[in-house]
Amino acid sequence: MTGNHKNTSITRRRALAVSGGTVAAGGLAVAGFQSAFADTTDTGTDATGTDATGTGTEADATATASSAGGACMTLMSSVTEGPYYLDGALVRKDITEGKAGVPLTLRLTVVDATDGCTPVRGAAVEIWHCDAWGYYSGYTTANPGGSAPAESEEGDSADDNTYLRGYQIANANGVVKFETIFPGWYTPRTCHIHVKVHTGGEKEDGTYEGGKVNYTGQLFFADDIAEEIFALAPYSRHTGDYTVLAKDMVYDGGGASSGLLTLEAVHKKDPSKGYKGFLTLAVDPDAENTGAGSGGGGTPPGDTPTGTPPSDAPGDSASPSASASS
């Protein structure tokens, strides 16, 4: 965690940042899913009042946006962007491109942790994540580990270079919304979504250009909900040993400040209907983040991905400060 600090200076870039600028998968599958879910039983509440299972109400998830209390002033923990980042994601609300999976609506609120948690209007929030079988767009031949069909077997019409990636621009309340699917997993990582917060740039040619990255993080899911989702088709066709939160190399157990989403089922008795996910991202709009972040070691899954990974993609000899995989 970065700790608390107060910065009353207003830069030109800060002024720009503040003033300006799906298909549901149904049915339980009979295919086996081996996991270590039973190994973790984390209870209690984190600093924002969210219980450690990541479940709660929309009111719980958005409370920090209107509070000026100490928890609100804690900066989010930055982590590595991983080896599967691609420039040029599109500005759009729906990033699914027809990818099959359990629907997920994300509502993220960006606030300034150095200025009483005021909304950061105009911040560009970028997310990217793998599909139901663990494949990233741009890297569709990277083996997700365990046993999974080839990405090409999905038979969808998604663009292999752009699916499940996108930007949204925060409104006056600092809020962005995305329509996507619950991500799958790959060895040795837990289920997660990558996120960056940019300020100072602008929408251009359908994407977001210029400015700087203030925060690079990952969003996480409670183990019991992930277990429930991965028993459904199409997720159930990817079998193997799933990494729970307590054993993940990136998630540090910090709850919401470390990216643990508050999740709300659309239909409590039918998880295939989808979930709503909420989180407040407390950032410093004057900071610049390189994407190196922190986290434990690890390498991407085997096989050569389509396209060329970023030059700083972690390898076997990567340093601890920049070695967590995607």
Order of helices and strands: HHEEEEEEEHEE
Counted beta strands = 9
* Helical percentage: under 10%
Taking the sheet with the most strands, its summary is: 5 strands, mixed
The helix/strand class is mainly beta
Q: Note the beta-strand portion.
A: 15-25%
Shape label:
globular
Number of helices: 3
> What's the mean pLDDT score?
76
Q: Could you please describe the fold and organization of this structure?
A:
The chain is mainly beta and 326 residues long. The chain is 8% helix and 21% strand. It is built from three helices and nine strands; from the N terminus they run ααβββββββαββ. The protein has helices at residues 12-19, 58-66, 223-230, and strands spanning 103-112, 118-119, 124-128, 165-169, 175-181, 192-204, 207-220, 262-265, 275-283. The strands form two sheets. Strands 1, 2, 5, 8 and 9 form a five-stranded mixed sheet that branches. A four-stranded antiparallel sheet has the order 4-3-6-7, covered by helices on one side. A hairpin with a 5-residue loop joins strand 1 (103-112) and strand 2. The radius of gyration is 18 Å and the shape is globular. Residues 1-71 and 296-326 have low confidence and may be disordered.
